[in-house]
Design a protein that fits this description.
Elements: H1 2-9, E1 23-32, E2 39-48, E3 56-63, E4 68-75, E5 79-81, E6 87-90, E7 93-96, E8 99-106, E9 109-121, E10 144-161, E11 164-167, E12 172-180, E13 186-192, E14 201-211, E15 214-225, E16 228-233, E17 239-245, E18 249-255, E19 259-266, E20 271-276, E21 281-299, E22 306-322, H2 324-328, E23 334-335
Parallel strand pairs: 17-23
Antiparallel strand pairs: 1-2, 1-12, 2-3, 3-4, 5-6, 6-7, 7-8, 8-9, 9-10, 10-11, 10-12, 13-14, 13-22, 14-15, 15-16, 17-18, 18-19, 19-21, 20-21, 21-22
């Protein structure tokens, strides 16, 4: 019981000990350099297959500028994770909350270097609502769990990618993770920590959530601004009032009793990442790191909500994937060509 409680209270930890297949777990490290000319995501993780011979760990690399991705596969025996901290090792690569070491030498790609993270902005949770999942995080029956490790942090260090030195000192980063049996049937995910207000960060996601023999669209949105985390989520009683998806943009409005978040995200060309299903890790997740987001956040009672923040975000992560009609149907959303 204690390891389970500790895992819920600390979503960043490895949750896979003793979990039967199918099971996946992955951490997401987004990196943008100071001049905002280079954008990367590194995703270490593990996939447990019912056939042990197909179980493996991996390090994915997404080059947000080129819109290319690489899936570096390792034997499952080369995965190691600490019990009491975010400390994951895959082959000669190591990932922690404060630092990552990369040492990938494959014919298709070579990446090496060390990066340190500072001024980390943590998700402000509580025992009843310990992370991004809120009280849903306590339920052992969810298909997919989501956690935020850092809403925003500073980067120091350099990487060498295919012989090219990349200085990331002075850049900004973001960390999150997912774990469970499979990714949702359909989802939208938006993220930026390059807003007009320095240090501000936005995360918004809407996904198909299985529930008993039915499903519902679950939403999580969080705006870190003014030293406070403003949350609108299904578990806080907020509802998706508008979701319009086209090939060019995503329009999303989430409203709670006392606040309202309005988002327009511009989609751009991205890379294809591997994502988990019940049977395999396959290339099925289109993600861009060059999107743009415009947002308005209002707060107050009833119809008299006042504008708290209005701005734009750059270097936005944008994912629109899966069965979008299944996602949109209960929301009366719109899918445009």
């Amino acid at each position: 019981m204690i390891p389970y409680v500790r895992g819920v209270l600390h979503p960043e930890l490895y949750h896979g000990r003793g979990k039967e297949a199918p099971y996946f777990e992955g951490w997401y490290f987004k990196l943008v350099d100071r001049p905002e000319t280079r954008r990367y995501a590194f995703i270490p993780g593990i996939f447990k297959h019912q056939d042990p011979g197909k179980s493996h760990c991996f390090v994915q690399v997404l080059d947000g500028n080129a819109g290319r991705s690489w899936y570096h596969r390792y034997p499952a025996s080369e995965f190691w994770a600490a019990e009491d901290a975010l400390d994951v090792r895959i082959g000669d690569n190591r990932f922690t909350r404060d630092r990552i070491w990369l040492d990938i030498h494959r014919p298709e790609q070579q990446v090496s270097g060390e990066l340190a993270f500072g001024q980390v902005t943590h998700w402000q949770g509580s025992p009843l609502s310990p992370g991004a999942m809120g009280w849903f995080g306590w339920l052992p029956i969810m298909e997919c769990y989501h956690g935020v490790v850092s809403l925003d942090h500073a980067i120091e260090g350099q990487l060498t990618v295919d012989g090219h030195a990349i200085d990331l000192t002075g850049g900004r980063g973001y960390m999150e993770k997912d774990w469970g049996r499979s990714f949702p049937a359909g989802w939208v995910w938006l993220q930026t920590n390059h807003l007009d207000a320095p240090g501000a960060s936005l995360l918004a996601t809407v996904a198909v959530v299985p529930w008993r023999r039915h499903y519902f669209p679950g939403a999580i949105a969080a705006l870190w601004y003014g030293g406070k985390l403003h949350r609108l989520a299904t578990y806080t009683g907020a509802r998706v009032r508008e979701l319009v998806i086209s090939t060019r943009e995503v329009q999303l409005v989430i409203e709670g009793r006392r606040d309202r978040l309005e988002i327009v995200a511009t989609r751009s060309q991205g890379g294809i990442l591997h994502g988990p299903s019940l049977t395999e890790m396959s290339p099925r997740v289109a993600e861009s790191l060059t999107g743009e987001i415009k947002l308005r956040y209002l707060a107050g009672r009833g119809q008299r909500k006042a504008l708290v923040f209005e701005g734009a975000g750059r270097n936005a992560g944008v994912e629109v994937n899966g069965d979008l009609r299944k996602l949109l149907r209960p929301l009366h959303g719109v899918l445009k060509d």
